[in-house]
Prior knowledge:
The structure holds three protein chains of three kinds. By secondary structure, chain B is α+β, with helices and mostly antiparallel strands. Helices cover 19% and strands 30% of the residues of chain B. In chain B, the strands form four sheets. In chain B, strands 6, 9, 10, 12 and 13 form a five-stranded antiparallel sheet that branches. Chain B has a three-stranded mixed sheet with strand order 2-1-3. The mean pLDDT of chain B is 85. In chain C, strands 1-8-7-4-5-6-2-3 form an eight-stranded mixed sheet. Chain C is globular. Chain C is of the alpha+beta class. Classes of the chains: A mainly beta, B alpha+beta, C alpha+beta. Chains A and C meet through helix 1, strand 1, strand 2, strand 15 and strand 16 of A and helix 1, strand 1, helix 2, helix 3 and helix 4 of C.
Amino acid sequence: MKTxxxxxxxxxxxxxxxxxxxxxxxxxxxGSQVNGNFQMDAQYYRVDSAIGALPVPEKMQMxxxxxxxxxxxxFNAGLRYETYLNPVNGYDPRYKGTGIPYWFVDYKxxxxxxxxGHIYEQFGGGAIFRTYEEHNLGYDNALNGIRVKxxxxxxxxxxxxxxxxxxxxxxxxxxxxxADADFxxxxxxxxxxxxxxxxxxxxxxxxxxxxxxxxxxxxxEKLMLPLNVAAxxxxxxxxxxxxxxxxxxxxxxxxxxxxxxxxxxxxxxLLLTATYNQKGLGIILQxxxxxxxxxxxxxxxxGNVLDIGYLPAITKQQTxxxxxxxxxxxxxxxxxxxxxxxxxxxxxxxxxxxxYGTDIAVNFSAINSIVxxxxxxxxxxxxxxxxxxxxxxxxxxxxxxxxxFNIEIGHKFTKSFKLLFTYMYEEYxxxxxxxxxxxxxxxxxxxxxxxxxxxxxxxxALRLETQALLTQQDEGNWVMALLEYxxxxxxxxxxxxxWNCGNEDTEKRFHYPLAAVAYNNDANRIQLSYGKxxxxxxxxxGVCRNVPASNGFTLxxxxxx
Amino acid sequence: MIKIxxxxxxxxxxxxxxVLASCDKIDAPYIVxxxxxxxxxxxxxxxxxxxxxxxxxxxxxxxxxxxxHTCVNCPRAALITxxxxxxxxxxxxxxxVHAGFYAKPSxxxxxxxxxxxxxxxxxxxxxxxxxxxxxxxGMVSRKGYPNNQQVLSPPSWANAVKNTVSExxxxxxxxxxxxxxxxDKLCIHSKISFLQAFTERTxxxxxxxxxxxxxQAQKNNDVTVGTTPSILNYVHTHVMRGAVNGIWGTPxxxxxxxxxxxxxxxTFQTHFxxxxxxxxxxxxxxxxxxxxxxxxxxxLQVAEVQVVE
Amino acid sequence: xxxxxxxxxxxxxxxxxxxxxxxxxxxxxxxxxxxVTDMKGTKVNTEKISNDxxxxxxxxxxxxxxxxxxxxxxxxxxxxxxxxxxxVKLYAVSIDDSRSSSQVKTLVNGKGWNYEVLLxxxxxxxxxxxxxxxxxxxxxNGKGEVVWQHTSFSEGAELDVINVVxxxxxxxPLPH
Lengths: 561, 309, 176
């Protein structure tokens, strides 16, 4: 089978070599075309027992994937070749291997679009169905099956999906079926056409089937499992002038599984978003509640695989290295939270705005547990084989998971000097989010980042990032500096150092230097870096794994064609 | 064009640095003694007992629960092994392997400073990538290794055990121990009696020691198991304390092919002398022996006996 | 078999990497079909992206991507001048998923950008365009064909973008 696929892949690979030249010869009258992209990350490891970088027997590890898409009129097909030999540090070891785990054919005819093969699709916000890939994070839950899209009239879209999900090099045991309908009322009600009011509504239904298996409640009892588990969701998107309101509510029937300790309670989720927008000002308010919504196409699975629904965290995604040390991870079965964000631009040529204006963004998020009450006097909370707990909808639980208050100010002082300043206060529950605890449960951290860009000439610029993470808990204080020199648009050179200067254990005050050089040309990028990477922890669904520290070279090549 | 040349050189240099650096230059001596030699056991010190005749043969399953004392989700997994052990009794053997990040002792002098890790457990964890997938996770009779499917989540152990015990056993494995408390010496005798014809296959036997009833602190987040976030007097069970005959066991001496089935019997003796040194309590300890395929690593049969009756 | 495959792939990669060096103003590919949504929630077919025969810039970005914000901020300062001079139109395609897609509008308004903003929350368009990582910028000629692309952003790279647009308008060969 594998040789078969390889023959196919070789043939296609050969095609892309020849095709573009053929096609380009015809120039603008392109009837069909072949495109693709490629990425390779190779790491060479050195042993560094001080920081915990263990010996890697193969010394080098490599991840790589190549996408090839063929388009001809309304016909579209593609495949992805992946190779992980062996998966680089931090990837799930079960990715080890080589093959073509993804391919599809797609045809559009009139009001129909049919896709067969591996499918990425999302219903509404994705609460009960979303398949997607995020290769840099090692995530892929593609649906292997079919999809039909039908657009009977303008403003109406109906979708149906049927298949199983990707499980590394295999398929998950559950069959996932679903349908979604989306209506844009503007296209239906003539009086809305020119009104300030916008209304979009949608609904979806998903059901998973998994054959029966033996799950013991105790040595003498086993669980009666539902073989079909259904979930439904409804959404509405309202807009009036500058105001917007968006709501998505989902419900799931009894779904005893490994992530909820096999309880039979129904699941529920709600996400509410209110926005106000005008030029120079944007405000957003969000509220969210998740109760027993872990939804996977395998009952006994606990890892970061086979998710049917997507329940994103409503916290700001931080990208500065030290601000991202304590990232929040959604707790699909138990979470209640809110987020507020204001973006404001102080106009040009004002006292505070200066010559170029000033950008301000303030963001706050707070996540707690939900309230869990006993079902009756004889049942423990979350006891398997019971309804588990009762939860009042509007009550916020006492356990603090996460707090983040951050403010970001960007100002351009002169034509060649820009400053971006970030302050962040964070509280982070290691027990809940990382599933392990040292002596404290809640980490309190203050984080400061200043990013300065100085233009030396129209193409050359220097960028300096200075960061500090101040905390009494965990590993104590960290500081970091990064200096980058760029020659637009092709060259990047950077040096950085992270220093755990505040570690209580004075022998663990390590430096983590990193140097990188990158060359870009059109859609090609080659980057070589050398340095040390600190240890990290990844947790999903009650299973946590440690990503060991590393010390060595990384070579990354990406291209699109 | 100059930049393209630079680009090419960088690419070539980078690639060659990476590839050239990935080699292991071996200097003489090229031959070293095998670290797990088959030492003929001193049968005078450990006289071979008479094994009782067995009439009912059945296959037993081995659960290896990879765990750690700072892993909050692990007590729930331990509970699953207890339930399964209750259900399957002698047909199931459980080992709690403390290995990896969550088994690391805390450097500060606290209740978390104790260390249950063993060299064999750590090596197995690295080899089978259990901790790399996450904790808690485990293996049932080490099945699925050739397909990278050996790591199983705790709720899926029940099905795997059920399937394993329903298989026809390839062999019977008997285990007899004699403990001499004065000399702190444990003699371990095992006997393999093949029950089926088999084609050429390299088999190995591993002997390990586990201990029950060790009271130490354990992190926990499940109220149905105990207090959260820590259970200070948690009772650890089936804790693997070490491998008696090396990390990957000892080869089982076999006639290479036995297609015309005739009962083949092979015995293996070994001894262990370190209970006091390792502060283990002999009456809480068990000896576990398992025979596995050296290539697929699948555990074909397993047996467990108490050190002291 | 595997070896042949790898060699072919390597060759392809080589051709792909260096072919563009010589392929001056060749058409790279036609805009693929995908469905995205605009800021009013209306579905838009990417084939319909147009600018009355004038050049188009398509820039893939995300609210959490610092270099992307830098690129779009930098261009925002000169966008009016660019439009007046060349008639170019910029489509900023956000790949934020439902975690942050509601923040796109807030950010765009907060920054005061005048771009055509499109949402691609499940990366359908991103995959169709074979984008590996953001920022990734494409330039289309008046016929809606992609003629230039670039990944990453550094200060001054915007000069290359407008330079390509000017050459397109003047019918001169494109720099690479």
